[in-house]
Amino acid sequence: MAKNNEKLQTKIISGKVFWASVIEPNTTYEPAWQVDVCLTPATKKIVEGDGLTVKNKGDDRGDFITLKRKVLRQDGTKRQAPVVKDAQNNLWNGQLIGNGSVCNIKYTPYSWSRSGKSGVSADLTALQVVDLVAYTKDDFEAVDGYTIDSDKEVVNL
Q1: pLDDT score, position 72
Q2: The CATH number of the domain where 28 resides is what?
Q3: pLDDT (average), residues 21-39
């Protein structure tokens, strides 16, 4: 294992991604750009070799890792967002990336030690979208039928 805060070799792995928050950071907890990356047996061996924690919650992701880049450094300064590109290496247009998209993900593992605990994490540095599954916020597709505008009369109960 590398010494505290020593960076290991930068890696690029490929896989399906879920919960990609690389356009806007995820702010559920500490703000961070992040993505869950599904692992094949070959990529699982790579990330385990880096000392990263592989998760499996019994869902569509199977074995996966979560790669993150915190928005703020420890000194409070803002970090650059991970670079996002398309398959032809063009800068990304800002479209949201949906679950099941296939991407190449670049990360740099690093060792850490804090409050009596230590481990290895990885800094998400870049993501290349190879096969996009567009993210949509709607649960349904538009179909023929009733619309709000078709009933102008309001009924008070």
Answers
A1: 96
A2: 2.40.50.140
A3: 96
